[in-house]
Write a structure and sequence with these properties.
Layout lengths: L6 E2 L29 H11 L9 H4 L9 E3 L5 E5 L9 E17 L2 E14 L6 E13 L4 E14 L5 E7 L3 E4 L9 E7 L16
Parallel strand pairs: 2-10
Antiparallel strand pairs: 1-2, 3-4, 4-5, 5-8, 5-9, 6-7, 6-10
């Protein structure tokens, strides 16, 4: 069983349209394995004079769908509080940032899956806070489910400013390409995208229960 926190899926189809330059849908793949079906092998021999079909062109690959990995929030990582002084009660909260919407996009290049992830959230002032510019450290990574190995990840330090007289602001980030090996069209069966806040284990808020959908 995965030990992740709340699974997050975009509830608004156009929530991060401005974040991702391309449509947030599953994209193309390149089949690179010989079929185990004898009928396919014979068909390839008749059609291509080989037991394996030739590589698809870029135009052909664009018509083959890939199921992108789902997005999960790391355990306790849906929100993070920063406190004033040593107290950790509500009165000492300077500010809190939280994750709102997410989106992802997958393409296949050179037998690798190229994943881009968009994250949108908010920064809220607490009772001990004041208008300022805040650093929001957003973690984005891709884990191979087998063996639970984190294959690629990065922390994005996002600047978010709350002006005088306001109590909140929003932030957004789109990851750099996250590249993992292509094994099959159903990439969601092999990988999971994890997001969260770096440093969340320090003074982290109440644990968010995972939602199964």
């Amino acid at each position: 069983m995965r030990q992740a926190g709340k699974r997050v899926q975009s509830t608004r189809a156009m929530a991060l349209t401005g974040l991702l330059a391309m449509a947030l849908t599953a994209c193309s793949a390149t089949p690179g394995q010989q079929s185990a079906d004898p009928g396919d092998t014979l068909g390839n021999l008749f059609a291509f004079n080989s037991i394996k079909a030739p590589p698809l062109t870029q135009e052909q690959r664009s018509n083959v769908s890939v199921i992108c990995p789902v997005v999960d929030v790391r355990d306790g990582g849906a929100a993070h509080r920063v406190y004033s002084g040593s107290g950790t009660d509500n009165a000492n909260v300077r500010y809190q940032y939280s994750i709102g919407e997410t989106a992802r996009e997958c393409t296949v290049e050179n037998n690798q899956i190229v994943i881009k992830v968009g994250v949108e959230g908010k920064v809220l002032l607490g009772p001990a806070g004041a208008a300022s510019t805040f650093n929001v450290p957003v973690f984005i990574g891709v884990m191979r489910d087998e063996g639970r190995a984190m294959l690629t990840s990065k922390v994005y330090n996002i600047s978010a400013s709350i002006p005088s007289g306001a109590t909140q602001t929003s932030f957004s980030v789109v990851s750099e390409p996250l590249i993992v090996p292509f094994t099959r069209e159903n990439a969601a069966a092999d990988y999971t995208i994890y997001i969260g806040f770096e440093g969340q284990r320090e003074n982290r808020p109440q644990k968010v229960a995972r939602s199964r959908r």
